[in-house]
Amino acid sequence: MNVETFAVGIMPTNCYVLTDDSGLGLIVDPAAPSQKLSERIDDFAEGQIKYILLTHGHFDHIGYADELRKKTGAKIVIYKGEEKFLHNSGLNLSSFMGGLKIEPFNADIIVSDGEEIPFGENKIKVLYTPGHTSGSCCYMIDDILFTGDTLMTGSMGRTDFPTGNYNDILQSLKRLKNLDGDYRVYCGHGPATMLEHERKTNPCM
Questions:
Q1: Quick check: helix, strand or coil at residue 132?
Q2: According to the model, what pLDDT value does residue 99 have?
Q3: Beta-bridge partner residues of 7
Q4: What is the edge-to-edge ordering of all strands in the sheet holding 75-79?
Q5: Where are the beta strands (DSSP E) in the chain?
Q6: Do 54 and 30 meet the contact criterion of CB atoms below 8 Å apart?
Q7: CA nearest 172: which of 182, 162, 159?
Q8: Which of 12, 38, 47, 108 sits at a 20 to 30 Å CA gap from 72?
Q9: CA distances from 201 to 53, 61, 150, 153, 191 (A)
Q10: Residue ranges for the chain with pLDDT beneath 50
């Protein structure tokens, strides 16, 4: 499987495009449009992009999701309870960003902890990792882990936004630390890393 990274939006946020060996694709946390991301999306045949995975509901992770759904026909996936962020500018923080406006939208698939989503010959496993927000989650596929703003290289996400909780994120990091084996970790912001490296060096873990 191949993962491509597009730093998009004002933060900037890592939007990921994953493609499996058969050419099926998914998108993780599309914050905002960009020319390079749009050009990459256009490379896919109609119906090849199956999912838009949202790790949590902040504006800098969801801002382009609805438009991409309309463009690709992909299904938007979010953790149960976090879907309220898609309708609430205070929760998703867009109301604090001046002229930024995200039109409310709905997810297509609401997932729970441990749920597995079929993706070609593989499955996407959902890991509930609250703390950055109450409905933050990670997505695991093969040896790849998309962690959003829960785990970042050498650090972790903030917990001072609505529904954030410091103790919860520490427990979530402990859960990730205790996963069997090693994983390529693709974070919401900053460079990618390896889980084993974070186990050894990240003071938050």
A1: coil
A2: 65
A3: 14
A4: 2-8, 13-19, 25-28, 49-53, 75-79, 109-111
A5: 2-8, 13-19, 25-28, 49-53, 75-79, 109-111, 116-119, 122-128, 137-141, 144-148, 151-152, 155-156, 184-187, 193-194
A6: no
A7: 159
A8: 12
A9: 28, 26, 16, 9, 15
A10: none
**Residue recorded with tokens 């003071």:** 203
* Strand 144-148, strand 151-152: pairing: unpaired
How many other C-beta atoms are found inside a 10 Å radius of the C-beta of residue 137? 28
Please give the Cα distance from 102 to 93 (Å, whole number). Answer: 10
DSSP class of 85? G
Compute how many other C-beta atoms are within 10 angstroms of the C-beta atom of residue 142. 16
| Assigned token pair, 61 | 């992770």
**One-letter amino acid of 204:** C
